[in-house]
Amino acid sequence: PLGQLTLQKEHQIQFQLMEATFYHMPQPCDSERLRNYLQRQPVQTPPHYPQQQLPHSDTFEFFQRLSTETLFFIFYYMEGTKAQYLAAKALKKQSWRFHTKYMMWFQRHEEPKIINEEYEQGTYIYFDYEKWGQRKKEGFTFEYKYLE
Amino acid sequence: TDVVDTDGFAEKTEHLFRHWVYTYHNEMNGRDPVKYFGSFVNRMNFLGVLKGDEQLTKFFTIATKMCIEASYRNLADTTITQAIAKTKTYHWIDAYVRLIALLVRHSGDGSNSNTKLNLLNKVLGIVVGILLQDQEQLHGANFQQFGYQRIFIMLFLELSAHDAILENISVGVVTAFCHTYHMLRPANAPGFCYAWLELISNRVFLGRILAMIPQQKGWFMYSQLLIDLFKYLAPFLRNAELAKPVTVLYKGTLRVLLVLLHDFPEFLCDYHFGFCDVIPPNCIQMRNLILSAYPRNMRLPDPFTPNLKVSTLADITTPPRICTNYTAAIQPASFKKDLDSYLKQRAPVTFFAELKRNLQISNEPGSRYNIPLMNALVLYVGTQAIAHIRLKNQVPSKQTVASSAHMDIFQNLAVDSDNEGRYLFLNAIANQLRYPNSHTHYFSCTLLYLFHETNSEAIQEQITRVLLERLIVNRPHPWGLLITFIELIKNPEYEFWKHDFVHCAPEIEKLFESVARSCM
Amino acid sequence: MGQDLTALGLNLNSSENLYPSFGGPFADAPARPQDIDYNVPPEYVIN
């Protein structure tokens, strides 16, 4: 029974300012840090491409199913985000270990020849983020103080 | 106020600020950012920026204006896309914000929060002043919100970083931002309203103010921000047709409320009363959303359970927490005194004339009544009635709510009001039909009692309308609303199906039957 | 009739809190893991 109510003058003025700013709506990326490599840039893709993110794609289980290469990509190109955190967690699950001095991931290739409190030494596989590939390194010393 | 450049201060500031932006993007990402910050502060000091309050104010005013001018300049640059214009602008603003955050963090000694928070409030106040001046005088309808939004959100994120000193001032930081956002509420800065909603619903801000501040100290502040939003939206939502800019802001509000309903239902439970006071009565679904909240540790019995005995439910005698001082709305004090006296002595009858005089504030159809007073009065009388019933060791029921000073007032409001007044009165009751608690129970009995006792079919129809309009909108529906309506249509005592208005139109009849079927 | 609140891009049946990945009032999908700032060990921030 309240019926219509005409807008008062002050509300009409408010509406004009609101309407003007309506054409410059905030985007989610306006509230997010600038990403060094992969800034959020919505691009119109053909409608038959999946337009929504895959279900559960923000879960650890999803990241565990990603290939090692993909996990390295996420780790190095999405730094400071939850994706990097989940990728690191998944890599560790695959017994990769992060070296905080070389900032690279290492994985034992075989049982180390020497193991003591400070370090282990032997043959390792590591991921070289500059040459973007996995390499084998013999006689490498992994000092535990650099184990993240 | 505009900065008067006396001794080349502006030029020095501009040079200093450019140097900082360069430092930030080229040195600060290294291993020892604080080292660079330390040498920059020495530069500021050398140039007299830290000499006193006035110089510091000038510095921040000029630096903020440089960032905002960059935002307009970049956006006006037709050779680049909007995305690149924003990225270029943020290149400046993110550096500026980092400087502010470092100055806040390192000012005063580690334990002295006041120095830090005073500096933060100063800077926030300067940005607010520039924004309001920009919107009102400089750019008007061409006002651009994104530069200001960036300053606020990135400063909040910087000051929310995991850092022992910042953790120490986190409540002060959240409080400072709440004051700032209240000063920039949409009614004050309509051109900033979308950015404002982004800011108050930012995931980090929500986490801080609603989850991380101990003892829910942030809840009241946040409720005030939502009330600012509802007050702004109210005139635009009061009519059925929404203009596109309003629809977008309204849907954005619904998203925020859904997150609150899902993650912080107790917050909506505690502040529902203040929210319903400012949400227009015709804004049914948004109000239902708020009234549907219930404590997470509570299990709601299925309202359609056959022979559900509401009075035997465990929580039904527990009074709900209401964090709004609703009795303060019962003004003037003389009226409150007369109300209390009537409740005590059930006299004098002249009180009802005073009641009507206080509730009616204009003759303008559609806004004749003081809605906050109506809501407060109904809730106050109801809580007094519950206490009165409990004093007699009874529980609310059709019998125990009857013939009392409290019910006199409700029946007077039902019988003696016009359509509009009665609609608002019945809404005030229906707003209490929420999750199982003593208010839901009492007001459910009261509404059913009013339906049963009245000899006016118009009143019965209006009670049905008030319930129905809340039920036919999309979900969610408050539990108390459902159990009241189910009781009304199921219990033969109310002779619901005999009323003509139930059969007034085929689709209405079908709707009642579909609800009845789901009950059976 | 109001809006269909299940169609606003929020996973209302989620057992987790929604706010940590809330994309904002005008976003019709939650923020993705790569959009959400996270307190990763400083060594991970390699630039």
From TrEMBL, chain B:
Would you name any one GO CC term? CCR4-NOT core complex
Q: What molecular function does GO assign, one term?
A: molecular adaptor activity
Q: Which residues of the full protein are shown?
A: 1853 to 2372 of 2393
Q: Where are the transmembrane segments?
A: none
For this entry, the protein name equals: CSON005447 protein
Compartments (UniProt record): Nucleus
State the UniProt keywords alphabetically: Nucleus, Repressor, Transcription, Transcription regulation
The family note in this entry says: Belongs to the CNOT1 family.
A single GO BP term for this record reads: negative regulation of translation
